[in-house]
Amino acid sequence: MPPHSLDIFGGSGEKRFLVGLVGQGPALDIFARILERPDFALAFPRVKIVGWCPYPEGRTEDQPQAPSLPKSMQHVASFPDATALFAARPGIQLALDLTPTNLHIAAIRKAAPIHTTVVTSDTLNLFALSAITGKFAPGGDEQLLKAHDLLTLLMDQLDDDVFIIREDGIIVDLNRHAAERLGVSKERAIGSHCNEIDTTTPCCDEESKCPFAIALTTGKKADRLFTRLDPSGFVRYLHTFCFPILGVGGTPSQVLLLQRDATEGRHFAQRMRQTEKMAVIGELSTYMAHEIRNPLFPIGGFASALLRNPSLDEDAREKVRIIFEESRKLDDILRNILNFARPTKQQIGTFDIEGVTRQTMELMLIGSAERGIIANVTIATDLPKVRGNAENLKQCLLNLLKNATEAMPEGGNITLTAKRVNATVHICVTDTGLGIPPELHDQVFSPFFTTKDASAGLGLAMTRKIMEEAGGTVLLSSRLGKGTTVTLVLPAALAVGEPEK
């Protein structure tokens, strides 16, 4: 791996926007002031300064030693000239000529790769003044155009949505990522109201908590985490930041709105909470096994013996029967908790999907026609064998089919499909039932979460646990009033001749 490749990607694997600095002068201090602003790092998290050459064409004997870099850039590596800089950092996308007179601009452009944009210090000064004071300095149209081009270049490198919105909600500008997500051109979006263009972002659902309104009224940065249901029915988390742009008189007239997809981070946090919860459940189950199951066993045993006693009258026998049945219910609940807390015993091997899915569907839907349920099974012909445990997969499918039938008290359609997606097999159970509210999507896989009075709330939690221990996962897509699809994703068995366990 070449040395410069370490600069291109951050710790999360996301591609950086690489910037190189050439020359020295007042623009260097101005650029340092931009970097030192906390909101710059928040708005442009992927911008990385990867190199500096104080002498674009090399230092001569009559030139003084270059000054030290400002504190915010002391980690940046220095190079003897522009040619050495671009040779060591060929991924640089933006080169800033910091020399006051820009005498070396031709040499810099000659040394820079074809994909590198080179801008001069006067353009940087204009952009910097805007970033630091919130106002554009007086200048000709050409200077303003250069500053706008630089700002657009930076905005378009972000993998987040960026909007500049007027106080009345009219979009003044947006970046390429936002336009592509919305499926509109920039020309179509600019001049339109934000609610008209972006109908999928619930930013203004509650005016008192809307970060756009807060930024306008307070003149301070505001942010909020929202959820959005994408076209496929999956929930995505969006972290929305709003930065006020001050107009004449120092009052906010526009807002820079940056919207970042936080779904992956949210998912990671949920998995961490799930791990912590499982650790607590494991400790609790050990305590329950000792403190509850031990006295429960003789209670059930004595109740069973009393039921066989012929001297009991009918009234007493009914009371003993209730004690016996309730003790059995407690024992079932305790056994479910203990089974959930300990690792599942899975003999991981390879098997065919079609036989397992058809048998499970037929078993679960016996008598379904009388309940108004129509079942459909679609199995692709190109399914590979999968890795996992056939019996545990049956248990997962039974959980999903049971939930699907309970979600359709008046009847409906249940569709089971199995298809290959790259190196995985997706088994989807779809119903036309009541659907799940978006705010509950994260909770339905949590242990003991249930919306049913007679349920322990372990069905979907156990399903996810079984799938993840087999190297798979579970996906949920649901819309209120239209139904739910739960997808089991299993890894395909690779042709590597590994023995079954």
Give a written overview of the molecule:
The structure is a single chain. By secondary structure, this protein is of the alpha/beta class. It has 17 helices and 16 strands. The strands form 4 sheets. A 5-stranded antiparallel beta sheet has the order 6-5-9-8-7, sandwiched between helices. A 5-stranded mixed beta sheet has the order 11-13-14-16-15, with helices on one face. The chain has a 4-stranded parallel beta sheet with strand order 2-1-3-4. β5 (about 160-165) and β6 (about 170-175) form a beta hairpin. α6 (about 120-135) packs across α7 (about 140-155), α12 crosses α14 (about 315-340) and α13 (about 295-305) packs antiparallel against α14 (about 315-340). The longest helix is centred in the middle third of the chain and has 29 residues, at about 265-290. The chain starts with a helix and ends in a 10-residue tail after the last strand.
Report the sheet with the most strands, covering strand number, pairing sense and barrel closure. Answer: 5 strands, antiparallel
Strand order of the largest sheet: 6-5-9-8-7
Task: Count every helix, treating DSSP H or I runs of 4 or more residues as helices.
Answer: 17
Strand content: 15-25%
Distance between the termini: 37 Å
